[in-house]
Amino acid sequence: MEQNQETPSALERRIDIAVSLADIEKEVDDRLKRIARTVKMAGFRPGKVPMKIVAQTHGGQARGEAVGAAVEKAFGDKVRADSLRVAGYPQIQPKEAATEGTLEFTAVFEVYPEVVVGDLAGQKIERPVLTVGEAEVDKTIDVLRKQRTTFTAVDRAAAEGDRVVIDFTGRKDGEVFDGGQAQDFPFVIGAGSMLKEFEAAVAGLKAGDSKVFDMTFPEDYHAQHLAGQAVQFEVMVKAVEEAVLPTVDGDFAKALGVTDGDVSKLREEVKANLEREVKRRVQSRVKEQVMEALLAATPIEVPKALVQAESEQLANSARRDLEMRGLKTKDIPVEPAWFADQAVRRVKLGLIMAELVKANELHAKPEQVRALVEEMAQSYEDPSELMRWYYSEPERLAQAEAVVIEDNVVAWVSAKADTTDKDVAFDELMGNNAA
Fold first, then answer.
1. pLDDT for residue 105
2. What class of enzyme is it (predicted)?
3. What is the band of 296 on the pLDDT scale with cuts at 50, 70, 90?
């Protein structure tokens, strides 16, 4: 058999494959003989069916398998001889004209790109620095208190931070609009759940007060039938309730899992949890910058086959997520094309990181994996239970290994790049998730 290779594009390859008809016929004959040993057919004992009948019944199958095996072998021999790394599956196309005594095919496929990680010295990375102290602990405990706010009725005008319970009716051009009516509706003034103009109209009212006021919805309001529309609301205040934060005492500590109610232990636990969360967020920010640095320093073309496979995987993940939320994907079709840009990025990073790991021995060491699992386990009531859970299944442990490899890559790139430390404010790093 003979193969000729062409290179029409950077990653696409074409190989012409010529398979000897004589070799095919011999393989077909061998396959039919193997089939004849066990084939069952009415009127004949097993293994005694005449070859002519076996050929008539199974000849097409045997020939198809023989041709497929011959082409697959020829293709495999060629890519191994040329040290080609095939990405995805080849498209095998028969050629119309063939040399006498042969079957000829063209295999079209893509190969993995050669990845040479670029110079990282010019890439800038800022590593956030934050030391958790008593002030950060106090802020977090305040958030925990606000999460456990209770409300008590008061006989005064509603103000910022109060919860009000109202009946309201909204009308547009004198008609009640869709979604414009509710009874016993609670909301906290200043919490942002209602439009500011609506909150301002209710502030200052006492229980039993009513008010009629005009209001215009914002142009970008989520309900399109109300966006930019002028309406009129009629509001009746049924209750005004003042926020009451729990005292930081033994009961509060017990409610947060400190069984003996020791407030100092609560503060220690909050600080330990904060330190773990700060470390995680710092790592996340540095990792994001490292990935951007790798992409900027190492421009590569990626095989379309890998991008398509990654797009399919992302689409399947999105479908599963929708189904877990109780939505039917047939009602919300999810197309792989939606994830093309994300898939390209993921494939590029996967190829670049694989090259880095291979070239610089950044594989996960057992002691690194164990240290990571132990660190994650510290936030559990029984750390040993999480340790057993991870080490009981190879697939779970593989997830931890993948995280370690990623951390190794981040550390390696950070050492090569222009990395500087930068102090960061607690609120800026933690955002709205200070707890």
1. 87
2. isomerase
3. very high
Non-local CB neighbours of 87 within 8 Å, separated by 6+ positions: 11, 109, 110, 111, 112, 303, 305, 306
Query: CA dist 320 to 307, 332, 334, 341, Å?
Result: 20, 12, 11, 20
Give the whole-angstrom CA distance, residue 392 versus residue 12. Answer: 43
Q: Which residues contact 380 (CB under 8 A, 6 or more apart)?
A: 386
H-state helical runs in 298-393: 304-324, 340-360, 366-377, 383-391
Q: Please enumerate in sequence order all residues whose Cβ is within 8 A of that of 398, keeping only pairs 6 or more positions apart, or say none.
A: none
Q: Are 153 and 239 in contact (CB under 8 A)?
A: yes
Domains with residue ranges and CATH for the chain: 2-111 (3.30.70.1050), 124-134+261-430 (1.10.3120.10), 149-244 (3.10.50.40)
N-term to C-term CA, the chain: 69
**Residue length of the chain:** 435
Closest C-alpha among 172, 171, 154 to residue 163: 154
Residue 290 CA to residue 361 CA, distance in Å, equals 18
Between residues 180 and 101, the one the model is more confident about: 180
Q: Tokens representing 185? A: 């509706």
- Residue 1 is predicted with a pLDDT of 46
User: Which residues have C-beta within 8 Å of that of residue 236, sequence separation ≥ 6?
Assistant: 166, 167, 168, 209, 210
Q: Is the pLDDT of residue 369 over 80?
A: yes
How far apart (Å, rounded) are the C-alpha atoms in residues 171 and 218?
Answer: 16
Determine how β-strand 86-94 pairs with β-strand 12-20: unpaired
- Identify the H or E element spanning 16: strand 12-20
Confidence category of residue 322, pLDDT binned at 50, 70, 90? confident
DSSP secondary-structure letter at 338? Answer: G
Q: Is the pLDDT of residue 249 over 90?
A: yes
- Listed range (312-316, 398-402, 428-432) with the worst mean pLDDT: 428-432
Paired strand residues for 176: 171
Reported confidence tier of residue 435, pLDDT bands at 50, 70, 90: very low
- Find all residues with CB under 8 Å of 288, minimum gap 6, and list them: none
Q: Are 22 and 14 in contact (CB under 8 A)?
A: no
